Amino acid sequence: MTRLRWALADGWTITLRDLNHWVAQPVQIVFGLLFPVLMVLMFGYLFGGGIAVPGGGDYREFLMPGMYAMTMVFGIEATYAAVTADAARGVTDRFRAMPMAGSAVVVGRSAADMLNSALGLAVMVACGLAVGWRWHEGLGRAMLAFGLLLLLRFALLWLGIYLALALRSPEALVALQVLVWPIGFLSNTYVSPETMPGWLGAIAEWNPLSSTVAAARELFGNPGWGGDSWITQHAVLMAVAWPLLLIAVFFPLSVRAYRRLSS
């Protein structure tokens, strides 16, 4: 219990350190929060008039659950950039040489990023309310939807930490961004997979992001699309299963990669 208490204390110290860095760089945080808002305005008002919602309904209500999930996906870039910056400057090696819990750096980073993601999600919800989005199935189901969105972010956080510790290259962030955008668009975020060619629509349906988006739409009571495949009929189940699978794979890989860093 003493070791656990000190591990939690060390992790919280690293969390505060990361939060203080954000406070010292408010412009970067502000732009990071406003970028998804810009995406909402672009898709909701520039393109939304030309996109038909499956089964009818307002496109912005169809769009917002997808944008909430995309905000969680975009966070992987911030995680990668922060971890690789610390590794490149030797900060991570200095932490490893200090008398602190071995898990503190990874736990502290994950806690700070989750707090940042919760703030980003709150900003997006405010944006959604401003453009006319509402939930229609009660506060309890809405909170469950928000929980699934944060669970997706928690899973992708460990993917970002692992990639950063494995590659240790700030320049690889561009390659990560190139991968994140197609994966985000190859989903049901902006349009229904039914509008895609059959093989491409199947890939979009099995995208973990699509399960979270579909589950959020169902729980919020927003317009969605009712596919006939097994995965679309069990969106809430898969919105839990996909993130847990990602965590089971990349959490131990992240810890292992951190322990293998050279001093």
UniProtKB/TrEMBL annotation:
GO molecular function per UniProt: ABC-type transporter activity
Location (main, coarse): membrane
Compartmental location: Cell membrane; Membrane
Keyword tags: Antibiotic resistance, Cell membrane, Membrane, Transmembrane, Transmembrane helix, Transport
Topology within the bilayer: Multi-pass membrane protein
Membrane-spanning intervals of the chain: 27-47, 67-88, 118-136, 142-165, 172-191, 235-255
Gene Ontology CC: one annotated term: ATP-binding cassette (ABC) transporter complex
Any single Pfam family the record assigns to this protein: ABC2_membrane
GO annotation terms (biological process): response to antibiotic
Listed InterPro entries: ABC2_TM, ABC2_TM_bact-type, ABC_2_transport, Nod_factor_ABC_transporter
ABC transmembrane type-2 domain ranges (all copies): 27-261
UniProt keyword Nuclease, yes or no: no
Source taxon at top rank: Bacteria
Hydrolase among keywords: no
Family to which this protein belongs: Belongs to the ABC-2 integral membrane protein family.
UniProt-recorded name of the protein: Transport permease protein
Organism: Phytohabitans rumicis
